[in-house]
Backbone:
């Protein structure tokens, strides 16, 4: 009787049925402007921020933190302006997350000084006794591996030359290693002496977290 | 080798691999459940929550579930086609490669090689391994189907074909990535598109691993166990095709109120509601199969597993479409309600059906009786109680969390800061851990029962075991 005695035809038909919804809701939208809007205000990540983003991914921060503020009154009140699609044009992968064990981070950039983040990453319970976030003090003991930084920014299409990547890394290193770096004390508490003049994984993670939502905030400021 | 020249070696291999990954996955699950209320357990980088959570989800989804599905598929495939596996050595290689890939996958996740796309966290070299073992599996499925002795393909075989095709498409499309090094890659999609592709995958990988092949087991083993034919063949045809058609449209209900275009969210919402129909088609088919024979719930220990399982499947497929509605998603999304939802499906439906299928299958392929029906009953009740307490605790926690997030003072300001909401959930997290322990004990009994079944002395001249 019919296709139930023809396995290959059955499989082809099955694939065809599966591909209808897939084509309409996934394949076609891939090429629609509404899923890939761009904005001149949204800048790609610097090499340091991208390295920080990779550490965020490596440690699975997305398991507990979202990066999308929804257009809901209390959510905007709690986190700030709701998220727009163009903000994520450079995000490969997206890191919107699916669970808020911790707060949303899409607007966290610039909310606190770097020193806050160094102290918090070191041991979140030191700052908030009842927090259940894991400690990340050990990130400051790891020298940042920048050997793939140029390749990464190239693959991601940020349009930096190798010299620009080197300069970005060096500028950020100089900033955090500087005697007058405002967050020097907190950084020194977690960073071992031999790494204080270099870039650590925690430096990159702080740079990344401070980038989140910063471009949007600068638009608001200009208005 | 046993009756009819069927190859049961690979079935055994996958069945005990499934048990192994189940125990590993649950142990990791308990560890992270404890970390949720006591962060001191984040002892080392590789024991930190962010890394361990993906070991749990991948270990259970790709490890336990897939291994169990492969075991049951190789068993059902041979019985339903009356044909031994087409390429037995390929099947054996599939078993070895599967476990190698899973072990390397677990190690790589411990090490932080994580693409962060949910349920697709494995890096590209591991992805290639997954694709290779899937192709090996597909060759055997279609090879055996083409050589089959039994002309008609039973319902379970339709579901197996659909899974084989769908998982291949889903896995490859969502995992297209550009390697940076052996351990790092970036997806080819960006931003909203990446989110859309990922949740099309994320939702349907659940559909075609946690639903479709489990339904194949349900449709095969329930009639076997109860000795009753499936109530309606026509209903199963309608359910099958409508489920296959509608499932793929629903991924964006995971992205309600996100920056994804609104029409995609709304389409997903509509199809999610529609999905109640095919899902309940199977539920009704299961219930009516027992029509007039409900005494088997008392007299036949395995029937109760299947009926409890399909009941949780029915509840799951009502709860899912409802929490996917935009208004309800606004409240429930991102809260602990969602893990509650997921675990009703995995603990109450998937593990329940797989357990019962193994209780039926293992004694048969070893040609002996189950070691202890009494232990199987204890296992059933521990799983049941563990799951209900686990999920109820998370649903209540989720409602509380959602309400606290949106609570405002009379002047319109927020009533609670985020940390208040975290601290208020600890009692529920503790209850959840306790419930997890109960469930885990049930699974230990399950494993013990199967191991003892295999190890007990075979009674000479014993025919195929009876059900009761």
Residues:
């Amino acid at each position: 009787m019919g296709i139930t005695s023809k396995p290959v035809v059955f499989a082809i038909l099955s694939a065809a049925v599966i591909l209808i919804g897939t084509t309409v809701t996934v394949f076609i939208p891939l090429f629609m402007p509404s899923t890939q809007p761009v904005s001149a205000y949204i800048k790609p990540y610097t090499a340091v921020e991208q390295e920080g983003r990779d550490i965020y991914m490596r440690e699975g921060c997305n398991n507990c933190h979202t990066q999308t503020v929804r257009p809901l009154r209390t959510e905007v009140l709690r986190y700030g302006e709701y998220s727009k699609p163009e903000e994520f044009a450079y995000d490969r992968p997206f890191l919107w997350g699916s669970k808020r064990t911790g707060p949303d981070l899409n607007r966290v950039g610039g909310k606190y000084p770097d020193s806050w983040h160094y102290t918090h990453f070191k041991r979140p319970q030191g700052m908030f006794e009842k927090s259940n976030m894991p400690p990340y003090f050990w990130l400051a003991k790891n020298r940042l591996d920048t050997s793939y930084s140029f390749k990464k920014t190239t693959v991601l299409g940020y349009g930096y030359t190798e010299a620009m990547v080197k300069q970005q890394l060096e500028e950020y290193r100089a900033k955090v290693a500087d005697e007058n770096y405002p967050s020097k004390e907190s950084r020194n508490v977690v960073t071992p002496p031999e790494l204080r003049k270099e870039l650590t994984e925690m430096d990159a993670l702080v740079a990344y977290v401070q980038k989140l939502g910063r471009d949007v905030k600068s638009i608001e400021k200009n208005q | 080798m046993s009756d009819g020249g069927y190859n049961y070696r690979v079935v055994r291999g996958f069945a005990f691999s499934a048990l192994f990954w189940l125990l590993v996955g649950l142990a990791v699950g308990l560890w992270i459940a404890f970390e949720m209320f006591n962060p001191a357990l984040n002892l080392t980088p590789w024991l930190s929550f962010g890394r361990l959570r993906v070991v749990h989800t991948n270990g259970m989804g790709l490890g336990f579930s897939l291994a169990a599905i492969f075991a049951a598929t190789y068993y059902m495939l041979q019985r339903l086609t009356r044909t031994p596996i087409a390429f037995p050595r390929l099947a054996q290689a599939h078993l070895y490669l599967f476990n190698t890939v899973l072990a390397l996958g677990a190690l790589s996740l411990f090490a932080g090689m994580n693409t962060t796309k949910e349920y697709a966290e494995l890096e590209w070299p591991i992805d290639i391994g997954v694709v290779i073992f899937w192709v090996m599996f597909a060759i055997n499925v279609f090879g055996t189907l083409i050589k089959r002795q039994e002309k008609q393909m039973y319902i379970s075989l339709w579901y197996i074909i659909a899974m084989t095709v769908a998982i291949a498409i889903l896995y490859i499309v969502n995992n297209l990535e550009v390697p940076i090094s052996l351990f790092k890659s970036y997806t080819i999609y960006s931003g909203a598109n990446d989110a859309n592709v990922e949740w099309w995958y994320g939702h349907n990988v659940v559909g075609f691993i946690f639903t479709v092949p489990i339904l194949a087991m349900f449709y095969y083993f329930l009639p076997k166990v109860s000795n009753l034919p499936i109530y309606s063949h026509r209903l199963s045809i309608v359910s099958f095709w409508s489920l296959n058609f509608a499932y793929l449209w629903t991924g964006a209900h995971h992205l309600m109120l996100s920056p994804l275009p609104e029409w995609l969210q709304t389409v997903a919402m509509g199809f999610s509601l529609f999905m109640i129909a095919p899902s309940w088609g199977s539920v009704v088919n299961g219930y009516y199969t027992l029509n007039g024979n409900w005494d088997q719930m008392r007299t036949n220990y395995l029937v109760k597993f299947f009926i409890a399982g399909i009941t949780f499947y029915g509840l799951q497929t009502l709860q899912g479409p409802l929490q996917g509605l935009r208004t309800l998603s606004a409240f429930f999304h991102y809260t602990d309600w969602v893990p509650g939802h997921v675990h009703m499906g995995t603990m109450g439906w998937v593990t329940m059906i797989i357990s019962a299928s193994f209780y039926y299958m293992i004694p048969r392929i070893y040609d002996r009786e189950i070691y202890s029906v009494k232990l199987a009953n204890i296992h059933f009740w521990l799983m049941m109680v563990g799951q209900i307490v686990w999920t109820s605790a998370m649903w209540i926690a989720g409602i509380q969390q959602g309400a606290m997030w949106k609570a405002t003072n009379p002047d319109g300001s927020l009533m609670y800061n985020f940390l208040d909401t975290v601290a208020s959930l600890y009692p529920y997290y503790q209850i959840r851990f306790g419930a997890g322990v109960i469930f885990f004990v049930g699974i230990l009994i399950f494993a013990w029962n199967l191991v003892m079944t295999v190890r007990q002395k075979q009674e000479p001249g014993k025919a195929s075991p009876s059900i009761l």
